Amino acid sequence: MSQAVDAVEAAAIALTEGSWVPSDYELGLAREFLTRREQLEQRLLPGMPACPQAQGWVSQHVLWLEDVARLADELLATWRDWLPGSPMLAVLGAYGGLARSVIPLSVQLGRAWEEEWSGPCSQQEASWWEDWHLPPEQRRQLDALTERLVIVGSVVVMALNRGERAH
Predict the structure, then answer these.
(1) Environment class of residue 26 by beta-carbon count within 10 Å: exposed (0-12), middle (13-18) or buried (19+)?
(2) Rounded to 5 degrees, what are φ and ψ at 101?
(3) What is the number of alpha carbons within 13 Å of residue 153 lying toward its C-beta?
């Protein structure tokens, strides 16, 4: 992941110094990614009730990150030929790579849920289940991953803002 971090840092520096002004195509990619990311629906494990807290279940966040990784992969495949060597591709590739890192956890949670629940459960049961399957250390790792995603996402937003002001 070091190359991805370097690419994000290089893009942020290039934006700050003005040596990278995103093209119209790069702006289009950034807009499409951010718009479609916001439109992704929060998924629940089958039979899991809605979470009473606004932030949702931790497993919802994991499933959302899996969907974000798929979205990033889809957009990168579509735009790669249009933007060879683009810093925007590198930044979105880093974002997708970070999000993709939760897929093994998502698969693990899905299997465990499927093995343990055959139908709906209560909110309390869902809370206990997440406490058991997502211990504090794993939640801290997810929080750290989310913080890194926010940083990479801020570079996408910064590129969009800089590019729009320049055009």
Answers:
(1) buried
(2) -65, -15
(3) 15
Q: Cα–Cα distance between 164 and 122 in angstroms, integer?
A: 48
* Nearby residues of 101 by Cβ (< 8 Å), 6 or more positions away: 145
Mean pLDDT of 122-141: 96
Planar angle of CA 135, 140, 143, nearest 5 degrees: 125
Spatial CA neighbour of 64 closest among 112, 103, 115: 103
Q: How large is the angle between the packed helices 87-100 and 24-39, nearest 10 degrees?
A: 20
- Residue 48: other Cβ atoms inside 10 A: 20
pTM for this model (two decimals): 0.92
Mean pLDDT of the chain: 93
